[in-house]
Backbone:
């Protein structure tokens, strides 16, 4: 019998994208709740407990409620896409390429916390440098990023796409998280293996899907004889042997006139770049991904496939 998958919150932005990725698959059975019944708690609980894997695409409090509904069930495995469990010690962080052992941890886990979109880019850049001993845990990291507006869910999509919305947003690009207390900071700090919280400056562009995450670094403040080349080599070695995260060759990066935030829209991969001048004093690390792909729904399906391969 095919494994049964229930997407709790399938009618939201992330859930709809997961359904799209699973359309036509015959190796799983997709359990579904009609949109008119999405607030039917009894039906929802039955479907949750009848699944082999439940993928939660819900706000934090609703995700916690769903996990409570499964508290007496040791058979259902869970992938949560909210921020509720991303730093919980008894949940496995669902970024398989982050570390050599992470895919196996996800494969055998009962509870997997899907990463946030911005943290996927930031951790993807930071973690290899921490592992290689290049980046001190006390380095004053700054993370500057722009996302497609779908990252804000249905409310922001309506604000950006409906000019008659009472809170319509007409700006081509805007900065938010101005208090520097964004909910992703703890996730970046924890899984980036930092002891000092980074300064995180997120923004949204007037495009639906796509993301650029930047981490600029001063080479003189890194460990050893850090250089453009050694940082690129560390990233390349870290991601060798898999095809989801790609480190762009230095020569190719040097020839680029610009980076398009929407280049990977609709894809579930991520590209990493190291920019700078050979012999220079600074580098700019850049991650390019789809905020709903490797940054959300695509990562959830990747984690589901790992769990099904156990």
Residues:
């Amino acid at each position: 019998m095919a494994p049964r998958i229930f997407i709790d919150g399938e009618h939201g932005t992330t859930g709809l994208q997961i359904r799209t990725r699973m359309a036509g698959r015959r190796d799983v059975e997709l359990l579904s709740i009609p949109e008119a019944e999405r607030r039917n708690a009894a039906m929802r609980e039955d479907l949750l407990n009848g699944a082999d894997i439940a993928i939660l695409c819900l706000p934090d409090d609703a995700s916690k409620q769903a996990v409570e509904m499964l508290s007496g069930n040791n058979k259902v495995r869970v992938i949560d896409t909210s921020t509720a469990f991303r730093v919980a010690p008894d949940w496995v962080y669902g970024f398989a390429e982050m570390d050599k052992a992470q895919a196996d941890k996800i494969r055998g886990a009962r509870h997997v916390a899907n990463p946030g979109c911005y943290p996927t880019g930031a951790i993807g850049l930071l973690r290899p440098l921490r592992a290689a001993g290049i980046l001190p845990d006390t380095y004053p990291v700054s993370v500057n990023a722009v996302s497609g507006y779908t990252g804000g869910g249905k409310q922001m999509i309506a604000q950006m796409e409906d000019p008659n919305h009472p809170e319509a947003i007409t700006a081509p690009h805007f900065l938010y998280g101005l208090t520097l207390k964004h909910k992703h900071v703890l996730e970046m700090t924890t899984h980036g293996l930092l002891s000092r919280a980074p300064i995180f400056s997120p923004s949204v562009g007037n495009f639906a899907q796509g993301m650029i995450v930047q981490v600029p670094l001063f080479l003189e403040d890194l460990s050893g004889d850090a250089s453009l080349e050694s940082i690129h080599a560390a990233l390349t070695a870290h991601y060798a042997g898999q095809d989801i995260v790609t480190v762009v060759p230095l020569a190719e990066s040097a020839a680029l006139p610009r980076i398009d935030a929407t280049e990977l829209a609709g894809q579930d991969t991520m590209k990493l770049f190291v920019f700078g001048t050979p012999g220079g004093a600074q580098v700019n690390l850049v991650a390019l991904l789809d905020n709903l792909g490797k940054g959300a729904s695509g990562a959830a399906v990747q984690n589901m496939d790992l769990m099904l391969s156990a």
In short: Residues 293-308 form the longest helix (16 residues).
